[in-house]
Each structure stands twice: as C-alpha cells, then as structure tokens.
Design goal:
By secondary structure, the protein is α+β, with helices and mostly antiparallel strands. The protein contains 18 helices and 14 strands. The strands form four sheets. Strands 2-1-10-11-7-6 form a six-stranded mixed β-sheet, with no helix packed on it. The longest helix is centred in the C-terminal third of the chain and has 26 residues, at about 320-345. It starts with a helix and ends in a 5-residue tail after the last helix.
C-alpha cells in the first residue's frame, strides 16, 4: 500500500489537462485551490498506515491474499459492508469534508457483480477482464474516479434523440484493438486527484441507445481527456494570505466536468459494450452502494456538532437549555443517519458473483434521510453560532495595527478564550454550512448518488406492500382465499 507521501508523488507523475478560471493549470498538486482536496484523499492513505486503524482502513484481497487499502476491496461479507460505513465516518471526522474515494470503490464493487452477470447471460469475458484490472488497481493502490453522470441535455429525450448526441457519453468508433468514445461526465468528485477513471452508463437504456451502454476504465491522463474545474462558494479565499478565513485550511473537495474528446479505449479495459439490457442493473447496483457511502456525512456531522458545542462555550451560552436541546437534536439526527448505513450493511447479501451488496431498500431509506438531516443539523449549528459567523471581518483586519485592537476588544466572548479562537470556530461552521465544504455536506447530500426523487422511486419499487397488506388483513379477519 502507498503512503500519503507516495500518493502525492504519484500524482506529480501524471500529465493531466486541467482548466480552471479560463486557464490551464500546469501544477495541479500545488495549486492552492486544488491542494486541500488532494490532502483529503491523502488521508485515505495515511490512516491506512496506522496500526490502530488497520482493521477499518485495510482488508485482505480475495484475489491475491495481500493486504490492501479497503477502498480497492471487493466486499466479501457483511462485516466488510459494516466496516465500509465505519471507514466513511472515520474519514469524514478526520477531514471535515469529502475525501473523494468512495465513488471509485462503489464502481469497482458494482462492476464485480454486473460483469459476472453479463458473462453468465451472454458468454462474454467481461468478468475476467475486470478481475485483471482489479488486481492492477489493488497492487498499485490506485484512486479510481467513478464516472456515471452525463450532462443529459433535454431530460424529456432519451440519449439517441438529443439534438447533440454527445450529451450522453457514447461509442463513436469500433476498432480491432478497441473503441473510441466521445462525451462528458459531470460533477466528478476528486477527478484530478485520481489515477484512473471508471466510466459507467448513467441510466437504464433500450436498444436504440445501445451505443451509450458502455463501461470502461482509463488512466486519468489518457490522451483526449480534459478536466474543467467547478467553482465552490468562497473558493478564492484559498488564494488569500492567512488561514483563518478558509474555515478548514487543511482539507477540502473538488468537482470537475470531465470531457472525453474522441478517446481511445483498448478492449482489455472495456467492461460493457452495447449490452443495453444490463445498463440499468449497473446503475442500480452502483447507486445502492453509493447511497450507503453517505456514512461520510455522519463523520462531517460529528465535526459540525463539535464546532457548535465549542461555539456555544466560547459565546458563554453552553448552559442555556435551548442550546443543550439543539445539540441533542443534532446528535439525534446524526446518529440516525449512522443507524441507516449500518442497517443496510447488516442486512447485506451475496450476489451471484460472490460480492456482497447492501440491502437496497434500507440503502435508499438511508440516502433519503441524508437529503434532509444534514440541512437541519446545519441550520441548528448556524442558530447556535450566531450572526457573527457571517459578519466578522477578514483575518487581515485582525492582524492590522489599525483595526486589530478594536476587533480583539469587541469580538471577545468568554474572556478565558482567545478572540481568534472564537473566530476560527465560527469560520469552520461557515465553511461547513455555507462555504466550500457545504458542497459536500449539503448539496452533495441532496443530489449525490441520485436526487431525492430517485430514492423515493426505489423505495416505492422495493417496499413489499403486498406483504404489509397481508399482515393487516390477517389481523382484522379479512380472508380473501
């Protein structure tokens, strides 16, 4: 397994084509806006090196028998599924942000199921290809970016009826040695911190859309792949001197639009090619795994609750009954989220390939709660923090000989606490609920792994209403036999 330092060195060897603010970024690793997101991924390597986290952060490969980073592991039992959730909470608490590696892990596990199913149905060789690729990923401890979401264009139209056929990624040429693809994948978390990109179809497809039913993996710096970085609220604070105004100066996340400009994919890296009947299954398996992955929001919630408690103490308000009650509610909501991800793991089962997958109904219920509870936790944190969270002057004003003494005087809370410490904790709450980290904690909670309606559709499909009706009728004496 790589160390955090070896991971950083591996990124420096990549030749990525990355654009931000209208310019090409020549040094992605050291760019001040991107660097915090790389630091967050590096924690997935750093914690795996610590003996006290070995059981959670690592596993034994079922292919090679070697100890590997759990982010490259294929779940072999329910215990693996539970440890995945514990790992997400651990890293969310350690970084206070999205650590970007879950999507690739979920893509690997979904493909381990669906490539096997395709081979059993069609006599193809995708599963063997995938296992060879998986061994490569595990042996080299690689970060994989799972790329599923297409731009989609006009949502009323299927892929083949779009005015621009490239609004869904598709195969544009077949060659003896591989295929050529064109299109884009949107909202790609951690894309420029990844060694590999694993592409999957974005929706269930019919025969007319078979050119869009494609899954493959490529090195992230393959020729023709371009990255255009997305903006985040308060992102340019990372360009300023000082660290306080960033809220979380060490860690962060990023998203990018990844463009595939006629990119060649060799056959040995193709895991689905026009098998449109299996596109929906791959989407569903991936989404089920990824909805469980939002255990990370519980870890970030731990940080936000700790920040709210600290802000209350610094404000001298921690003994107020309404403050105590709000903190109780924050913990109640956060731990309820944890119950959901642990429950769907504990009810997991083996797929025909032997890979374990979480209970899909409970995973969707968990993710539905994730679309709501972090927003309430954030609201309560802002309530406890007070308005100063969004009205305080800049760190430079505190350092200025012209204004610093007045800010130290009038922004003091509990006199035993340095004024700057009070400001730091308020900036962290701002970062988590309004700033760059709010991308991962709030909006990603809403739309990541499918928007709320996607989970409601699955809950309606998976809930056994006939059994519920049978139980009710039996109790009140209705006999329809």
């Amino acid at each position: 397994m790589m160390t955090a330092e070896q991971y950083e060195a591996s990124l420096r060897r990549l030749n990525l084509e990355v654009y931000m603010f209208g310019k090409r970024i020549t040094n992605v690793v050291d760019d001040p806006i991107i660097r915090p997101s790389m630091n967050a991924v590096a924690q997935t390597y750093a914690l795996a090196q610590r003996p006290e986290h070995e059981d959670i952060m690592t596993a034994v490969s079922h292919l090679t028998g070697k100890r590997i980073n759990r982010f490259t592991h294929i779940h072999q039992n329910r215990d693996d599924l539970v440890k995945k959730s514990k790992m997400g909470r651990l890293l969310g608490r350690a970084t206070g942000c999205c650590f970007q590696r879950c999507v690739g892990m979920d893509a690997l596990n979904a493909l381990s199921i669906v490539t096997y199913d395709m081979d059993q149905a069609n006599g193809t060789e995708y599963y063997q290809r995938f296992q060879q690729y998986l061994t490569y990923v595990q042996d080299n401890d690689l970060v994989c970016d799972g790329a599923m979401t297409d731009p989609k264009g006009n949502r009323r139209l299927p892929p083949h009826q779009q005015d621009d056929p490239d609004l869904y990624l598709r195969v544009v040429e077949e060659r003896p040695d591989g295929i050529v693809v064109r299109g884009a994948k949107a909202h790609q978390t951690g894309a420029v911190n990844s060694h590999e990109i694993i592409v999957m179809p974005t929706m269930a497809m019919r025969e007319a859309d078979r050119d869009y039913a494609v899954s493959f993996a490529l090195p992230s710096d393959a020729e023709g792949i371009k990255y255009i970085m997305g903006r985040q609220s308060c992102d340019t604070r990372k360009l300023e001197e000082g660290r306080m105004d960033r809220g979380n100066p060490l860690f962060g996340g990023h998203e990018a639009l990844v463009v595939f400009d006629d990119v060649f994919v060799p056959w040995e890296r193709v895991f689905m090619y026009k098998e449109h009947a299996f596109a929906g299954s791959l989407v569903e398996k991936f989404a089920t795994y990824h909805r469980q992955s939002y255990a990370c929001k519980v870890g970030v919630g731990d940080v936000l609750i700790g920040a709210a408690q600290t802000a209350a103490e610094y404000n001298g308000a921690e003994r107020a009954s309404h403050i105590k009650d709000k903190l109780i509610e924050m913990n109640h909501l956060n731990e309820t989220l944890y119950c959901g991800c642990i429950a769907c793991a504990g009810e997991g089962h083996a797929a025909p390939s032997g890979t374990y997958i979480v209970d899909p109904l409970l995973a969707n219920v968990h993710k539905q709660n994730v679309t709501r509870f972090p927003y309430e936790v954030a609201r309560l944190a802002q309530d406890i923090a007070g308005g100063l969270m969004v009205t305080m002057p800049a760190e430079a004003d505190f350092a200025s000989p012209l204004t610093g003494k007045w800010l130290e005087k009038y922004y003091a809370g509990d006199c035993s606490v340095p004024t700057l410490n009070r400001m730091r904790i308020l900036r962290l709450i701002e970062n988590l609920t309004l700033g760059t980290a709010a991308v991962g904690y709030l909006t990603e909670s809403m739309h990541g792994a499918g928007s709320p309606q996607a989970q409601r559709i699955m809950i309606a499909r998976l809930a056994n209403m006939a059994e519920k009706q049978r139980a009710a009728k039996a109790l009140c004496g209705i006999d329809e036999t």
